[in-house]
Design goal:
Length: 486
Protein backbone atom coordinates (compact mmCIF):
# COMPACT_ATOMS: atom_id res chain seq x y z
CA UNK A 1 0.00 0.00 0.00
CA UNK A 2 1.24 3.49 -0.87
CA UNK A 3 1.94 5.81 2.06
CA UNK A 4 -0.23 8.53 0.46
CA UNK A 5 -3.52 8.02 -1.36
CA UNK A 6 -4.83 10.81 -3.55
CA UNK A 7 -2.98 14.10 -4.19
CA UNK A 8 0.38 14.47 -2.46
CA UNK A 9 0.59 17.42 -0.04
CA UNK A 10 2.67 20.31 -1.35
CA UNK A 11 4.89 20.22 1.73
CA UNK A 12 5.78 16.57 1.10
CA UNK A 13 6.63 17.28 -2.55
CA UNK A 14 9.08 20.00 -1.54
CA UNK A 15 10.65 18.06 1.33
CA UNK A 16 11.04 14.88 -0.69
CA UNK A 17 12.56 16.76 -3.60
CA UNK A 18 14.98 18.59 -1.31
CA UNK A 19 16.79 15.31 -0.69
CA UNK A 20 18.05 15.37 -4.29
CA UNK A 21 20.12 18.52 -3.66
CA UNK A 22 23.01 16.28 -2.51
CA UNK A 23 22.98 14.44 -5.82
CA UNK A 24 22.99 17.79 -7.66
CA UNK A 25 26.02 18.96 -5.69
CA UNK A 26 27.87 15.74 -6.50
CA UNK A 27 26.81 15.75 -10.14
CA UNK A 28 27.87 19.36 -10.65
CA UNK A 29 31.24 18.69 -9.04
CA UNK A 30 32.00 15.50 -10.93
CA UNK A 31 30.56 16.55 -14.27
CA UNK A 32 31.57 20.21 -14.53
CA UNK A 33 34.65 20.73 -12.35
CA UNK A 34 36.48 17.55 -11.37
CA UNK A 35 38.10 16.74 -14.73
CA UNK A 36 39.10 20.38 -15.21
CA UNK A 37 40.43 20.64 -11.63
CA UNK A 38 42.57 17.52 -11.67
CA UNK A 39 43.89 18.04 -15.22
CA UNK A 40 44.22 21.79 -15.81
CA UNK A 41 44.81 22.84 -12.17
CA UNK A 42 46.59 19.90 -10.49
CA UNK A 43 48.44 18.83 -13.63
CA UNK A 44 47.20 15.27 -14.19
CA UNK A 45 46.74 14.06 -17.76
CA UNK A 46 43.09 14.53 -18.86
CA UNK A 47 42.91 11.02 -20.29
CA UNK A 48 44.27 9.56 -17.04
CA UNK A 49 41.78 11.54 -14.94
CA UNK A 50 38.85 10.48 -17.10
CA UNK A 51 39.97 6.84 -16.86
CA UNK A 52 40.12 7.04 -13.05
CA UNK A 53 36.63 8.55 -12.92
CA UNK A 54 35.32 5.89 -15.28
CA UNK A 55 36.76 3.06 -13.18
CA UNK A 56 35.34 4.62 -10.02
CA UNK A 57 31.92 4.75 -11.63
CA UNK A 58 32.15 1.14 -12.80
CA UNK A 59 33.12 -0.03 -9.30
CA UNK A 60 30.29 1.98 -7.78
CA UNK A 61 27.86 0.64 -10.36
CA UNK A 62 28.63 -2.93 -9.23
CA UNK A 63 28.06 -1.96 -5.59
CA UNK A 64 24.80 -0.09 -6.25
CA UNK A 65 22.58 -3.17 -6.75
CA UNK A 66 23.85 -4.59 -3.45
CA UNK A 67 22.97 -1.29 -1.72
CA UNK A 68 19.54 -1.39 -3.35
CA UNK A 69 18.96 -4.94 -2.21
CA UNK A 70 20.08 -4.08 1.33
CA UNK A 71 17.74 -1.10 1.32
CA UNK A 72 14.84 -3.33 0.21
CA UNK A 73 15.71 -5.75 3.02
CA UNK A 74 16.16 -3.17 5.79
CA UNK A 75 13.69 -3.91 8.56
CA UNK A 76 13.29 -1.24 11.23
CA UNK A 77 10.65 0.81 12.97
CA UNK A 78 11.77 3.68 10.71
CA UNK A 79 10.98 1.66 7.60
CA UNK A 80 13.32 0.47 4.88
CA UNK A 81 14.88 3.74 3.69
CA UNK A 82 15.29 6.21 6.57
CA UNK A 83 18.11 4.41 8.45
CA UNK A 84 20.30 4.82 5.36
CA UNK A 85 19.39 8.49 4.97
CA UNK A 86 20.43 9.23 8.55
CA UNK A 87 23.66 7.18 8.53
CA UNK A 88 25.37 7.95 5.20
CA UNK A 89 25.52 11.78 4.84
CA UNK A 90 28.24 12.56 7.43
CA UNK A 91 30.84 10.12 6.00
CA UNK A 92 29.88 11.38 2.53
CA UNK A 93 30.60 14.96 3.57
CA UNK A 94 34.06 14.05 4.88
CA UNK A 95 34.96 12.19 1.68
CA UNK A 96 33.66 15.08 -0.44
CA UNK A 97 35.97 17.58 1.32
CA UNK A 98 38.98 15.28 0.79
CA UNK A 99 38.16 15.00 -2.93
CA UNK A 100 38.64 18.77 -3.37
CA UNK A 101 41.65 19.11 -1.06
CA UNK A 102 44.02 16.20 -1.80
CA UNK A 103 46.25 15.57 1.23
CA UNK A 104 49.47 15.59 -0.83
CA UNK A 105 51.04 18.83 -2.05
CA UNK A 106 52.27 17.23 -5.28
CA UNK A 107 50.19 16.14 -8.25
CA UNK A 108 47.75 13.41 -7.12
CA UNK A 109 48.39 9.90 -8.35
CA UNK A 110 45.97 7.80 -10.35
CA UNK A 111 45.41 5.53 -7.32
CA UNK A 112 44.67 8.42 -4.95
CA UNK A 113 42.06 9.93 -7.25
CA UNK A 114 40.51 6.53 -7.95
CA UNK A 115 40.21 5.67 -4.24
CA UNK A 116 38.57 8.89 -3.07
CA UNK A 117 36.26 8.98 -6.12
CA UNK A 118 35.04 5.45 -5.30
CA UNK A 119 34.40 6.33 -1.65
CA UNK A 120 32.41 9.46 -2.58
CA UNK A 121 30.29 7.65 -5.13
CA UNK A 122 29.46 4.67 -2.92
CA UNK A 123 28.41 6.92 -0.02
CA UNK A 124 26.35 9.12 -2.35
CA UNK A 125 24.57 5.97 -3.58
CA UNK A 126 23.81 5.02 0.03
CA UNK A 127 21.90 8.33 0.22
CA UNK A 128 20.34 8.55 -3.23
CA UNK A 129 19.15 4.97 -3.83
CA UNK A 130 17.00 4.80 -0.65
CA UNK A 131 15.75 8.36 -1.21
CA UNK A 132 14.55 7.86 -4.78
CA UNK A 133 13.17 4.40 -3.89
CA UNK A 134 10.61 6.19 -1.73
CA UNK A 135 8.81 7.53 -4.85
CA UNK A 136 6.82 4.38 -5.75
CA UNK A 137 6.27 3.72 -2.03
CA UNK A 138 4.81 7.17 -1.40
CA UNK A 139 2.28 7.01 -4.27
CA UNK A 140 1.11 4.62 -6.99
CA UNK A 141 -0.46 7.41 -9.09
CA UNK A 142 1.04 7.75 -12.60
CA UNK A 143 1.00 11.56 -12.62
CA UNK A 144 1.86 12.09 -8.94
CA UNK A 145 5.02 10.08 -9.46
CA UNK A 146 5.95 12.46 -12.26
CA UNK A 147 5.29 15.32 -9.83
CA UNK A 148 7.69 13.89 -7.25
CA UNK A 149 10.35 13.45 -9.92
CA UNK A 150 9.78 17.03 -11.09
CA UNK A 151 10.59 18.25 -7.60
CA UNK A 152 13.59 15.93 -7.35
CA UNK A 153 14.99 17.16 -10.65
CA UNK A 154 14.29 20.79 -9.76
CA UNK A 155 16.05 20.43 -6.40
CA UNK A 156 18.95 18.46 -7.85
CA UNK A 157 19.55 21.01 -10.56
CA UNK A 158 19.19 23.85 -8.05
CA UNK A 159 21.86 22.31 -5.82
CA UNK A 160 24.23 21.72 -8.71
CA UNK A 161 23.72 25.11 -10.31
CA UNK A 162 24.06 26.87 -6.95
CA UNK A 163 27.50 25.30 -6.64
CA UNK A 164 28.36 26.47 -10.15
CA UNK A 165 27.33 30.07 -9.42
CA UNK A 166 29.22 30.07 -6.12
CA UNK A 167 32.27 28.64 -7.88
CA UNK A 168 32.29 31.46 -10.42
CA UNK A 169 31.36 34.31 -8.05
CA UNK A 170 32.61 33.34 -4.58
CA UNK A 171 35.12 30.50 -4.54
CA UNK A 172 37.06 31.23 -7.75
CA UNK A 173 36.38 34.87 -8.67
CA UNK A 174 40.01 35.91 -9.30
CA UNK A 175 41.70 36.56 -12.63
CA UNK A 176 42.55 32.87 -13.02
CA UNK A 177 38.89 31.84 -12.62
CA UNK A 178 38.42 28.08 -12.63
CA UNK A 179 42.18 27.61 -12.79
CA UNK A 180 42.53 29.09 -9.28
CA UNK A 181 43.55 26.13 -7.05
CA UNK A 182 42.84 27.65 -3.61
CA UNK A 183 39.16 28.15 -4.44
CA UNK A 184 38.40 24.45 -4.63
CA UNK A 185 38.88 23.82 -0.88
CA UNK A 186 35.97 26.07 0.27
CA UNK A 187 34.03 24.79 -2.74
CA UNK A 188 34.31 21.27 -1.29
CA UNK A 189 33.53 22.33 2.29
CA UNK A 190 30.36 24.21 1.34
CA UNK A 191 29.21 21.36 -0.88
CA UNK A 192 29.68 18.90 1.97
CA UNK A 193 27.53 21.05 4.28
CA UNK A 194 24.80 21.28 1.64
CA UNK A 195 24.81 17.50 1.15
CA UNK A 196 24.30 16.80 4.86
CA UNK A 197 21.56 19.41 5.16
CA UNK A 198 19.60 18.12 2.19
CA UNK A 199 19.70 14.38 2.94
CA UNK A 200 19.09 14.52 6.68
CA UNK A 201 16.64 17.43 6.35
CA UNK A 202 14.58 15.59 3.73
CA UNK A 203 14.59 12.36 5.75
CA UNK A 204 13.47 14.16 8.92
CA UNK A 205 10.74 16.01 7.02
CA UNK A 206 9.30 12.73 5.68
CA UNK A 207 9.85 10.76 8.89
CA UNK A 208 6.28 10.95 10.19
CA UNK A 209 4.86 9.57 6.94
CA UNK A 210 7.35 6.90 5.90
CA UNK A 211 8.68 5.68 9.28
CA UNK A 212 6.60 2.52 9.44
CA UNK A 213 7.62 -1.01 10.31
CA UNK A 214 7.63 -3.03 7.06
CA UNK A 215 4.74 -5.46 6.74
CA UNK A 216 6.99 -8.50 6.62
CA UNK A 217 10.46 -9.18 7.95
CA UNK A 218 12.76 -10.29 5.12
CA UNK A 219 15.05 -13.31 5.50
CA UNK A 220 18.67 -12.73 6.54
CA UNK A 221 20.93 -11.18 3.91
CA UNK A 222 22.77 -13.64 1.73
CA UNK A 223 25.04 -12.60 -1.14
CA UNK A 224 23.83 -15.53 -3.23
CA UNK A 225 20.15 -14.69 -2.65
CA UNK A 226 20.85 -10.99 -3.19
CA UNK A 227 22.43 -11.61 -6.59
CA UNK A 228 19.59 -13.96 -7.53
CA UNK A 229 17.02 -11.28 -6.68
CA UNK A 230 19.03 -8.59 -8.49
CA UNK A 231 19.34 -10.76 -11.60
CA UNK A 232 15.62 -11.51 -11.45
CA UNK A 233 14.76 -7.82 -11.26
CA UNK A 234 17.17 -6.79 -13.99
CA UNK A 235 15.72 -9.48 -16.28
CA UNK A 236 12.37 -7.66 -16.36
CA UNK A 237 11.72 -6.86 -20.04
CA UNK A 238 10.57 -3.29 -19.42
CA UNK A 239 13.71 -2.60 -17.36
CA UNK A 240 15.98 -3.91 -20.11
CA UNK A 241 14.30 -1.62 -22.65
CA UNK A 242 14.63 1.34 -20.30
CA UNK A 243 18.27 0.46 -19.64
CA UNK A 244 19.14 0.43 -23.35
CA UNK A 245 17.69 3.91 -23.87
CA UNK A 246 18.88 5.24 -20.55
CA UNK A 247 22.43 4.05 -21.23
CA UNK A 248 22.69 6.20 -24.36
CA UNK A 249 20.98 9.18 -22.70
CA UNK A 250 23.28 9.08 -19.68
CA UNK A 251 26.43 8.73 -21.81
CA UNK A 252 25.36 11.84 -23.69
CA UNK A 253 24.57 13.70 -20.46
CA UNK A 254 27.91 12.78 -18.88
CA UNK A 255 29.81 13.86 -21.97
CA UNK A 256 27.88 17.13 -22.30
CA UNK A 257 28.29 18.10 -18.65
CA UNK A 258 31.97 17.26 -18.43
CA UNK A 259 32.89 19.00 -21.69
CA UNK A 260 30.78 22.11 -21.07
CA UNK A 261 33.50 24.12 -19.31
CA UNK A 262 35.92 23.33 -22.13
CA UNK A 263 33.35 24.46 -24.71
CA UNK A 264 32.40 27.55 -22.73
CA UNK A 265 36.01 28.62 -22.27
CA UNK A 266 37.71 27.55 -25.48
CA UNK A 267 34.91 27.51 -28.10
CA UNK A 268 32.48 30.23 -26.98
CA UNK A 269 35.15 32.19 -25.04
CA UNK A 270 32.78 33.22 -22.26
CA UNK A 271 34.27 35.67 -19.78
CA UNK A 272 33.84 35.45 -16.01
CA UNK A 273 30.57 37.41 -15.99
CA UNK A 274 29.10 35.37 -18.84
CA UNK A 275 30.07 32.12 -17.11
CA UNK A 276 27.78 33.12 -14.24
CA UNK A 277 24.87 33.38 -16.67
CA UNK A 278 25.55 29.86 -17.92
CA UNK A 279 24.16 28.12 -14.78
CA UNK A 280 21.42 30.77 -14.60
CA UNK A 281 20.35 29.77 -18.12
CA UNK A 282 20.43 26.10 -17.16
CA UNK A 283 18.28 26.78 -14.11
CA UNK A 284 15.76 28.72 -16.20
CA UNK A 285 15.57 25.73 -18.53
CA UNK A 286 14.78 23.47 -15.56
CA UNK A 287 12.00 25.85 -14.49
CA UNK A 288 10.54 25.63 -17.99
CA UNK A 289 10.87 21.83 -17.81
CA UNK A 290 9.09 21.83 -14.44
CA UNK A 291 6.10 23.55 -16.08
CA UNK A 292 6.25 21.60 -19.34
CA UNK A 293 6.82 17.96 -18.44
CA UNK A 294 3.53 17.37 -16.58
CA UNK A 295 1.31 18.47 -19.49
CA UNK A 296 3.54 16.52 -21.90
CA UNK A 297 3.16 13.32 -19.88
CA UNK A 298 -0.60 13.79 -19.67
CA UNK A 299 -0.88 14.34 -23.41
CA UNK A 300 1.79 12.06 -24.88
CA UNK A 301 2.75 9.70 -22.04
CA UNK A 302 6.28 9.18 -20.77
CA UNK A 303 7.83 7.19 -23.67
CA UNK A 304 6.74 9.61 -26.42
CA UNK A 305 7.75 12.61 -24.30
CA UNK A 306 11.22 11.10 -23.97
CA UNK A 307 11.49 10.68 -27.75
CA UNK A 308 10.40 14.26 -28.40
CA UNK A 309 12.89 15.54 -25.83
CA UNK A 310 15.81 13.50 -27.19
CA UNK A 311 15.40 14.41 -30.86
CA UNK A 312 14.48 18.07 -30.38
CA UNK A 313 17.22 18.64 -27.81
CA UNK A 314 20.13 17.36 -29.90
CA UNK A 315 18.79 19.11 -33.00
CA UNK A 316 18.68 22.52 -31.33
CA UNK A 317 21.92 21.98 -29.42
CA UNK A 318 23.77 21.25 -32.69
CA UNK A 319 22.69 24.40 -34.51
CA UNK A 320 25.22 26.85 -32.97
CA UNK A 321 28.12 24.43 -33.46
CA UNK A 322 27.23 23.62 -37.06
CA UNK A 323 26.85 27.30 -37.92
CA UNK A 324 30.18 28.03 -36.22
CA UNK A 325 31.93 25.38 -38.34
CA UNK A 326 30.30 26.81 -41.47
CA UNK A 327 31.45 30.32 -40.62
CA UNK A 328 27.88 31.58 -40.30
CA UNK A 329 27.98 32.28 -36.55
CA UNK A 330 28.95 35.59 -34.90
CA UNK A 331 32.53 35.84 -33.65
CA UNK A 332 32.86 33.82 -30.40
CA UNK A 333 33.38 36.02 -27.38
CA UNK A 334 31.15 38.80 -28.73
CA UNK A 335 27.77 39.70 -27.22
CA UNK A 336 25.70 38.49 -30.23
CA UNK A 337 27.45 35.10 -30.09
CA UNK A 338 26.94 34.73 -26.34
CA UNK A 339 23.26 35.74 -26.38
CA UNK A 340 22.46 33.44 -29.29
CA UNK A 341 24.29 30.55 -27.65
CA UNK A 342 22.36 31.03 -24.39
CA UNK A 343 19.05 31.14 -26.31
CA UNK A 344 19.72 27.79 -27.96
CA UNK A 345 21.02 26.39 -24.66
CA UNK A 346 17.82 27.38 -22.84
CA UNK A 347 15.52 25.49 -25.22
CA UNK A 348 17.77 22.49 -25.91
CA UNK A 349 18.50 21.85 -22.23
CA UNK A 350 14.79 22.15 -21.38
CA UNK A 351 14.02 19.37 -23.84
CA UNK A 352 17.03 17.33 -22.72
CA UNK A 353 15.82 17.37 -19.12
CA UNK A 354 12.32 16.42 -20.31
CA UNK A 355 13.89 13.32 -21.84
CA UNK A 356 15.79 12.50 -18.63
CA UNK A 357 12.87 12.98 -16.25
CA UNK A 358 10.57 10.98 -18.55
CA UNK A 359 13.04 8.10 -18.57
CA UNK A 360 13.61 8.14 -14.81
CA UNK A 361 9.90 8.31 -14.07
CA UNK A 362 9.31 5.17 -16.14
CA UNK A 363 11.14 3.08 -13.55
CA UNK A 364 8.35 3.57 -11.01
CA UNK A 365 5.95 1.69 -13.29
CA UNK A 366 8.40 -1.22 -13.63
CA UNK A 367 8.01 -1.83 -9.87
CA UNK A 368 4.36 -2.89 -10.22
CA UNK A 369 5.03 -4.90 -13.37
CA UNK A 370 7.67 -6.86 -11.48
CA UNK A 371 5.40 -7.26 -8.45
CA UNK A 372 2.59 -8.61 -10.61
CA UNK A 373 4.89 -11.27 -12.04
CA UNK A 374 6.88 -12.24 -8.94
CA UNK A 375 4.74 -11.15 -5.94
CA UNK A 376 7.75 -9.13 -4.73
CA UNK A 377 8.43 -5.40 -4.65
CA UNK A 378 11.96 -4.27 -5.41
CA UNK A 379 12.09 -0.47 -5.56
CA UNK A 380 15.65 -0.36 -4.31
CA UNK A 381 16.82 -2.93 -6.84
CA UNK A 382 15.35 -1.07 -9.79
CA UNK A 383 16.56 2.35 -8.74
CA UNK A 384 19.99 0.97 -7.98
CA UNK A 385 19.80 -0.53 -11.46
CA UNK A 386 19.07 2.93 -12.76
CA UNK A 387 22.15 4.25 -10.96
CA UNK A 388 24.16 1.32 -12.31
CA UNK A 389 23.16 2.31 -15.84
CA UNK A 390 23.64 6.01 -15.13
CA UNK A 391 27.04 5.67 -13.51
CA UNK A 392 28.47 3.32 -16.11
CA UNK A 393 27.15 5.59 -18.83
CA UNK A 394 28.11 8.88 -17.18
CA UNK A 395 31.57 7.54 -16.49
CA UNK A 396 31.89 6.56 -20.12
CA UNK A 397 30.63 10.03 -21.09
CA UNK A 398 33.33 11.68 -18.96
CA UNK A 399 35.83 9.23 -20.44
CA UNK A 400 34.73 10.34 -23.92
CA UNK A 401 35.31 13.97 -22.95
CA UNK A 402 38.81 13.13 -21.80
CA UNK A 403 39.49 11.42 -25.11
CA UNK A 404 37.97 14.31 -27.10
CA UNK A 405 40.28 16.74 -25.28
CA UNK A 406 43.26 14.47 -25.96
CA UNK A 407 42.29 13.87 -29.61
CA UNK A 408 41.84 17.60 -30.23
CA UNK A 409 45.28 18.20 -28.60
CA UNK A 410 44.18 21.00 -26.29
CA UNK A 411 47.29 22.06 -24.36
CA UNK A 412 47.08 22.22 -20.51
CA UNK A 413 46.95 25.74 -19.08
CA UNK A 414 46.41 27.43 -22.46
CA UNK A 415 44.49 30.73 -22.56
CA UNK A 416 41.07 30.56 -24.30
CA UNK A 417 41.92 33.09 -27.01
CA UNK A 418 45.18 31.34 -27.88
CA UNK A 419 43.66 28.01 -28.97
CA UNK A 420 44.31 27.08 -32.60
CA UNK A 421 41.21 26.98 -34.87
CA UNK A 422 41.94 23.36 -35.77
CA UNK A 423 41.74 22.38 -32.09
CA UNK A 424 38.35 24.09 -31.73
CA UNK A 425 37.09 22.47 -34.93
CA UNK A 426 38.11 18.98 -33.87
CA UNK A 427 36.63 19.40 -30.39
CA UNK A 428 33.29 20.53 -31.82
CA UNK A 429 33.11 17.86 -34.52
CA UNK A 430 33.80 14.99 -32.12
CA UNK A 431 31.27 16.35 -29.64
CA UNK A 432 28.45 16.80 -32.19
CA UNK A 433 29.04 13.41 -33.82
CA UNK A 434 28.81 11.54 -30.52
CA UNK A 435 25.79 13.58 -29.39
CA UNK A 436 23.73 12.84 -32.51
CA UNK A 437 24.42 9.10 -32.44
CA UNK A 438 23.62 8.80 -28.72
CA UNK A 439 20.39 10.81 -29.02
CA UNK A 440 19.17 8.54 -31.82
CA UNK A 441 19.82 5.41 -29.75
CA UNK A 442 18.10 6.89 -26.68
CA UNK A 443 15.04 7.97 -28.68
CA UNK A 444 14.60 4.54 -30.25
CA UNK A 445 14.74 2.52 -27.02
CA UNK A 446 12.90 4.91 -24.71
CA UNK A 447 10.15 5.18 -27.32
CA UNK A 448 9.85 1.39 -27.19
CA UNK A 449 9.08 1.33 -23.45
CA UNK A 450 6.06 -1.00 -23.17
CA UNK A 451 4.13 0.30 -20.11
CA UNK A 452 1.46 2.89 -20.88
CA UNK A 453 -0.59 4.90 -18.41
CA UNK A 454 -3.62 2.66 -19.02
CA UNK A 455 -1.65 -0.54 -18.47
CA UNK A 456 -0.13 0.83 -15.26
CA UNK A 457 -3.48 1.91 -13.83
CA UNK A 458 -5.03 -1.47 -14.61
CA UNK A 459 -2.07 -3.22 -12.97
CA UNK A 460 -2.34 -1.10 -9.81
CA UNK A 461 -6.03 -2.03 -9.57
CA UNK A 462 -5.21 -5.72 -10.01
CA UNK A 463 -2.53 -5.61 -7.32
CA UNK A 464 -4.86 -3.81 -4.93
CA UNK A 465 -7.45 -6.58 -5.37
CA UNK A 466 -4.74 -9.18 -4.80
CA UNK A 467 -3.71 -7.49 -1.53
CA UNK A 468 -7.29 -7.32 -0.27
CA UNK A 469 -7.82 -10.96 -1.13
CA UNK A 470 -4.63 -11.88 0.74
CA UNK A 471 -5.68 -9.84 3.79
CA UNK A 472 -9.09 -11.49 3.83
CA UNK A 473 -7.45 -14.89 3.53
CA UNK A 474 -5.08 -14.12 6.38
CA UNK A 475 -7.99 -13.00 8.56
CA UNK A 476 -9.69 -16.37 7.91
CA UNK A 477 -6.47 -18.27 8.51
CA UNK A 478 -6.43 -19.53 4.91
CA UNK A 479 -2.71 -19.42 4.15
CA UNK A 480 -3.13 -20.78 0.62
CA UNK A 481 -5.59 -18.15 -0.62
CA UNK A 482 -3.10 -15.39 -1.31
CA UNK A 483 0.14 -13.75 -0.35
CA UNK A 484 1.29 -10.29 0.52
CA UNK A 485 4.87 -9.51 -0.30
CA UNK A 486 6.40 -6.18 0.75
Amino acid sequence: MAFVSGPIPQRLKIIHGFGAVAFGVKDSGFSFFLLLYYSQVLGMDAGTVSLALLLALLFDAVIDPILGNLSDRTYSRWGRRLPWLYAAPIPLAIAWVLLWSPPTSSTPTFGELLTIAIVVRVLLSACEVPSVSLVPEVTSDYDERTTLFRYRFLSGWLGGLLMMVLAYLVFMPGPDGLLQPEGYVPFGIFGAFLMVLSVIGSAAGQHRIVAQLPEHKPPPFSLRVAFHEIFQAFSEKSFLIFAAGGLAAYVSQGMTFSISNYLNLFVWQLDRTELVFYPVTLFLSVIVMFLLVGPMHRRYGKPKSAVIGAIASVSLMSVPYVLLLLGAWPEPGTLPSTLAFFAFLLVSNTLGVVMMISATSMIAEIVEAFEERTHRRAEGAFYSGNWLVQKCATGFGIFLTGQIISWSQLAPGIEPGAVEPEVVRDMVMYYIAFSVVLAGIAAYWLGSFPISREEHEARVETLEKRRKKALDAAARGDIDAGTIVP
